[in-house]
Amino acid sequence: MAGRRNRKHNVFFGITARTLMTISAALLLLSYLAVYVNPAKAWYMTIIGLLYAPLLAVNSLLFVWALIRRSRAVMIPLVALLPSVFIAGKYFHLGREVPENPDGLKIISYNVGRFALNQSGDYSSWEECCDSLMAFLKSRDADIICLQEFYADNTAKMRKYLSSKMKGYHLSYYVHENSYSCTGNVTLSRFPALNKGKLDFEQSANLALYSDYNIGGKVFRVYNCHFQSYNISLSHLAQSMEDDYRKTVRETEEKMKRSIIRRPVQVDQVMDNIESCTEEAIVTGDFNDTPMSYTYYRLSRRRKDSFEEAGSWSGATFSRLRPFLRIDYVLFPKRYDALTHTVHHVGYSDHYPIETVLNIDK
Fold first, then answer.
1. Per-residue pLDDT at 234
2. What's the whole-number mean pLDDT along residues 139-168?
3. Which of 192, 195, 201 lies closest to 225, judged by CA?
4. Cα–Cα nearest to 256, from 28, 40, 47
5. 211-237: b or e for each residue (b if 16 or more CB lie within 10 Å)?
6. Which of 9, 65, 192, 251 has its CA at 20 to 30 Å from residue 94's CA atom?
7. What is the DSSP string of 80-125?
8. Residue 202 per-residue DSSP state
């Protein structure tokens, strides 16, 4: 009798395990396709792409578990994991040797989150957080600094503040201003811009700023991009779930769908500008999308990724869901080389700044 119960238990357990493996493997395989699907046609594919890193972890655990049990079902996660041999490097690299004081073009990209979400809790106001951040940026001695979601009371105050705190840097910016404040993108450079402009995104406060530079006889354009945000606060979401679960789920779904559909249109605007420009393009900023996305696929084609080239360990840049979300990038022409890529785990924002040194003398 006991033997029969055990056999039934084993059969049930085996079927359940294989079902879980099959579902996990199918979702991981679908996530590989997310980069090729325009979200305007199938917005939910972006969500599956967002889940690539946790799906990779789940399938890896199931593979190890099946291997230990010597189960023939080990082939299910194995088949799903094989393509990741070529993809996982977009998220994670084993430690690489970092050259000391590399000679090249140093670029920092950072979504500063309006100085409202400092993660350390060490700052009593956004002004104090901003002062500390400016000191950090100054200490990094970068050639070009691309900031997104920069916040100030007004443009006059912003110009005066940056002129005072970031002496030696030329300023390019575009901000949306109202009677209370201004928010937008700021590019600081040790070199004067030959030309600059901005790309406004329809029905959005997000934008892309571009500046042209001549450094050592090399002329190129730097794009400082902030693509459509989800505008979802995790703390507010948790509170709302308690108040009205169904309403919160419906509103969150609509927000995500709206953001996901808008991003490819914004990316197309940037790509049109890149293709009409005679200069080579370096594309930086907060894409609000992972490497397993249509956004990243479009912008990274015919360009290198500084993290893939020179990063170590996790490349995650969104602190709230570390180590799964890498959504900030520096992409550059293939004839350049990335010498270093560093994710600075500092708490001035819900993002982490990324810093890379490029060799453009090729």
1. 47
2. 90
3. 201
4. 47
5. bbbeeeeeebbbbbbbbbbeeeeeeee
6. 65
7. HHGGGGTTGGGTEE---PPPSS--SEEEEEEE-GGG---SS---SS
8. T
CA 21 to CA 55: how far, in whole Å?
11
Tell me how many degrees the CA angle 168-107-130 measures, rounded to the nearest 5.
60
Strand partners, 144: 107, 189
Buried b (16+ CB within 10 A) or exposed e, 5-18: eeeeeeeeeeeebe
The pLDDT-based confidence of 241 (bands split at 50, 70, 90) is very low
pLDDT given at position 83: 93
Q: Reduced to 3 states, what is the DSSP secondary structure of residue 30? A: helix
Task: Give the pLDDT of residue 341.
Answer: 95
DSSP 8-state code for residue 194: S
The position carrying tokens 């901003």 is: 130
Burial zone of 174 (CB within 10 Å; 0-12 exposed, 13-18 middle, 19+ buried): buried
| Segment (H or E) for 328 | strand 328-333
289 is written with which tokens? 């999308």
Residues 6+ apart with CB under 8 A from 3: none
Q: What is the DSSP string of 264-319?
A: HHHHHHHHHHHHH-SSEEEEEEE-SS-SSSHHHHHHHTTEEEHHHHH--EE---BG
Radius of gyration, alpha carbons of the chain: 23
Q: Which residues are within 8 A (CB) of 62 and not within 5 positions of it... i.e. 6 or more apart?
A: 20, 21, 24, 76, 77
Instruction: State the CB neighbour count (10 A cutoff) for residue 95.
Output: 7
| Residue of 259, 310, 311 whose CA lies nearest to 286 | 259
Q: CA-CA distance, 32 to 173, in Å (whole number)?
A: 36
| Cα–Cα distance, 77 to 25 (Å, whole number) | 6
Alpha helix positions (H), the chain = 2-33, 44-50, 52-68, 75-81, 126-140, 155-165, 234-243, 245-276, 294-300, 306-310
Going by their DSSP bridges, the two strands 280-286 and 354-359 should be labelled as unpaired
